Amino acid sequence: MGARHLFLLVVTVALAGIVSGAEGYTRPPPRQTLSIARAAATSPEQVHVSVVGENNMRISWITQTYVPSTVYYGTSSRVYGSSATGSSSSYRYLLYHSGDIHDVVIGPLQPNTTYYYTCGTNSSTEFTLKTPPAQFPLNFAIAGIYFSIRYQSKQLYMIGAHQSPI
Questions:
Q1: What gap in Å lies between CA 59 and CA 49, rounded to an integer?
Q2: How would you classify residue 164: left for phi > 0, otherwise alpha for psi between -120 and 50, otherwise beta?
Q3: Is 29 helix (H, G, I), strand (E, B) or coil?
Q4: d(Cα 106, Cα 75) in Å, to the nearest integer?
Q5: pLDDT at position 124, please?
Q6: Helix, coil or strand: residue 7
Q7: pLDDT (tens digit, 9 = 90+) per residue, 6-35?
Q8: Pair 55, 133: CB distance under 8 Å
């Protein structure tokens, strides 16, 4: 038997195994339909927080319908002694509509403090954020790739010693 005949025999046996295995398969019944309730059109979605300057934070979120761009906030849960109002915008691209994109800057805030806040009026969802410390305990360095291993070693040594190599 040549190599070609042996190959055909192996392929035929493999296909026979696949076909006979398919006959013994029983498809399971379909599962129940999964339904997820959508939040109210005024509920905040995609909430983002970012630092703005030394003592302010920017709160951004999206709603599907118009809601005033107001954030109520305070240092105790459900007790909001402060509020800030910002702006909202939206955009369209072909058939897509973004919804209202809200942007509010809150502050001045105390460093290293937990704040509780809600986005928009009549929102039952409360969020929290913690402001950064007054002094960042961070040291960082930016190092580039150089052709000289000797210079790179010197640069890393100077960074470790908190000196600028330039």
A1: 5
A2: beta
A3: coil
A4: 13
A5: 83
A6: helix
A7: 777 776 766 666 655 556 778 888 888 887
A8: no
What would the two tokens of residue 142 be?
């930016």
CA 158/CA 68 separation, integer angstroms? 53
Neighbour tally for 69: CB within 10 Å? 23
| Separation of alpha carbons 66 and 48, rounded Å | 18
Closest CA to 104 of 80, 76, 120, 84: 84
Q: Give the pLDDT confidence of 68-97 residue by residue, as tens digits.
A: 999 999 999 999 999 999 999 999 999 999
Contacts of 43 (CB under 8 A, 6+ apart): 63, 123, 125
Q: Position of tokens 């599962």?
A: 31
E strands, the chain, where? 45-52, 56-63, 70-74, 82-85, 87-89, 92-93, 96-97, 100-106, 114-119, 127-130
Using alpha carbons, select from 58, 53, 123, 51 the residue that is nearest to residue 87: 58
Cα 54 to Cα 104: distance, rounded to the nearest angstrom: 16
Residues 64, 41 contacting (CB under 8 angstroms): yes
Q: How many CB atoms lie within 10 A of CB 41?
A: 13
